[in-house]
TrEMBL record, chain A:
Short name of one Pfam family: Peptidase_M16_C
Species classification: Bacteria, Bacillati, Actinomycetota, Actinomycetes, Micromonosporales
Sequence ranges assigned to domain Peptidase M16 N-terminal in this UniProt record: 31-147
Gene3D superfamilies assigned to the protein according to its UniProt record, in alphabetical order: Metalloenzyme, LuxS/M16 peptidase-like
SUPFAM superfamilies documented for this protein: LuxS/MPP-like metallohydrolase (SSF63411)
InterPro entries: Metalloenz_LuxS/M16 (IPR011249), MPP/UQCRC_Complex (IPR050361), Pept_M16_N (IPR011765), Peptidase_M16_C (IPR007863)
Domain Peptidase M16 C-terminal: start-end pairs: 185-358
Protein name per its UniProtKB record: Peptidase M16
Amino acid sequence: MSLITTRPEPGAARPYAFPQVRRISAHGGTVIAAHLPGQILASAVLLLDAGASRETGGREGTATVLAKSLEEGTKQRDSAAYALALEGLGAELSPSVDWDAFRVGVSAPGPLLAGAVRLAAEATRTPKLDPADVTRVRDDEVTALRMDWAQPGPRADATLRADLFGADGRYSRPLHGDPTSVAAVTVEDVLAFHESWMLRPGVLLVAGDLDALDLGALAEAAFAGTSGELLEPSGPLGVVLPPARRTILVDRPGSVQSTLRLGHRAPERATPDYVPMTLAATVLGGAFTSRLNHLIREVKGYTYGIRGSYAMSRRSGRFEVAAGVQTAVTAPAIRDTLGEIERTQAEGVTEAELEVARSWRAGQLSVEMQTPGAIAGALATLVVHGLPDDYYETLRREYLEATVETVSEAASKHLAVEKLTLVVEGDGAAIRTDLAEFGELIDADV
Amino acid sequence: MIARVTSPTAPVATTGYPWPIETAQLTNGLRVVVSEDRTAPVVCVNLWYDVGSRHEPPGQTGFAHLFEHLMFEGSQHVKKTEHMKLVQGNGGSLNATTNPDRTNYFETMPSEHLELALWLEADRMGGLVPALTQETLDNQREVVKNERRQRYDNVPYGDAWLRLLPLLYPQGHPYHHATIGSMEDLNAAGLDTFKAFHQQYYAPNNAVLTVVGDVRAAEVFALAEKYFGPIATVPDIPPAPDGSLPDPATEEARETITAKVPAPRVYLSYRTYPFGTAGYDAVTVLATILGNGRGSRLYQRLADGSRIAQPDYIGSYGVDLAHAPAPLIITATAKDGVDVVTLEAGLAEVVQSLVDEPVTTEELDRAKALLTTAWWRGVSTVGGRADLLGRYATQFGDPSTAADRLPRWLAVTSEEVTEAARQVLRPESRVTLTYLPGESA
């Protein structure tokens, strides 16, 4: 007997549907919940309009220090009692900060979720914020950042961001600050941030088996005692490109790899080109079979992996290629990468490539959105970007209907190979000379 | 089935797997496991091959893992770049992992592409060797060397696992060397060795096929027969070297590394029991009490109490290996101004407290509640469930025993935790790996 030689045809596809969404308004806030019948685990995220963009200049990292201070005790109980109460429900607090929002997440078996949300809200609304604790957490965060910055990547990321968003205040600095800015954060900064941004009701996102969850009780747990109006959103920062390409070297003596971060600015998330841009980036550097991964990893063997993508927040966006390449092939790897970006910008995509990209992106909406945590995250995207409840069905259709023309047009419009900033973090002594071929070379001061 | 209430409000877990499980075996020996769940239009196909780095003879370290890479580079009817393209191009996610015990391959697809996934897996099980070329081997060897640089060599403390294994397991033991292998062995790898490796181990009678999600079991069994049925049984597959050990170790082992690290860090490690045993269940609960979460002893005493350890870098966990006593790893990183001697002494003291101070009901309930949530998180995707069933079918011969793990964790008593601590956490059995900041020697 022998193997079946021909590839099977697909069966009949079941129609895609995002989980049923229910909304209630109560206790001054809104609960948006997705129904996942049969899921034993449930997730909740308290979403507050208190992102890093609200931090003061020079004190970048204030929101992160606050996030890490929330579990140092509340007005009701000390930190050890708080940890035991929350972890006794099987839940752990996941506070996080991004450009647009402050999120406090908890997951627990369904029957325990309301108790976990009550504790999450207790830490979020009424943290003790004892000055000695906040100071210690701040110092720990400085140490943790130094640990993180000893890895390849964070210095390159900060260098690229400073170059792309140099004139845009908070956006020119790392999302979580750097060791210097966090060291400058004071107890007063943290208290003021909490007072200004953490006491409005916000939105509670819930994903789980809603037949076993009481949304009214969850609303009360999340919003009781809060007040204040929704905040007015600010406008986009725009797409500013430099006159010419340049290279910035971040020295990492003895590094066996060079960390590449090549990028330029792009539109914000609300751009009407979101779908064709995402598909163009998928063809260039998103899928495993992308042009970049195929050439740099599979053909040349320079790297373990290379990715190209657009990252977009409410007010800003950027295109970026990221990879770690073997030190000896740093220049050839950059040369080949620029070649693929240039080709994609000039010639667009082919139908065969686009077919992979659109099916993959559409399929990922069901394949990658199975867990309560992933669904709660998808609900958060709807809130942050003002999207309707049927957005994911629409997005899937737009992916599947995108044409070679629209995607190629987006590549031409939103890729700018001549305007890239090339940040290279690696062994300067070994790679400096080779970098000369890419134009002006600057040494980073991070 | 054992039922226990973990706290006044927690639900009673009598099973960790409340979905149906159906099994079949093809005449060539391939075991097929199916678990139907219609809630989402997705399906995961997962292959566990009972071959890992524990099977590698001296001079061939890293071969099982390099082989995993070769499995994505085309087979008899699948062209060189087609595998990834067909999975992603039909909306799927895929990956593969290799560890000391086994190699697994998996893809989650929109369910209408089930048959495609089975065809791809069958073609590379039964038809890899004719497609394997020197060029592919050379290229993937470079990719794996880049993986080693990126994950282990270019990262502070990145080589800790590589250093702990030879301290924990004696020369010649199947867990002595790390799965990623050595650069020298990888450089020496020849094409014929890999062809022989595939013919030896990638056999239907050495694998478990698990399919979970939007499918019917009867349909999967028929498709498995259609695609995998033609693949021949491989007789007399040699077992891996024996992993049994006189436990626990009787001689302390220690290594101190001076390297470009940002702060002193200590790893304490012990050989415990094989994954799947009652002893290892107690160790799992013990590790959670000791180092998982802010309510753990390590966090409470070293990060919150004496404040000698950095709160973000403290923890303890077991590595779930099944073919020899599995490692327990405990780690802490010094805060600014704290010397490594103080840190190690503090760590050792908290570890010893598990022997000397009874585990309280609160500590035990906290650990069980966290393990319960972690369990349900693990099975909240079809991919998580497929891997779980594949593991239990491969390592214990019966996928339905996966349902017992959570109830068994919940049945562990505080006396059993203390007894496990007494047996396992002996100072004379300890492995200590220390990193100090400085220029590498």
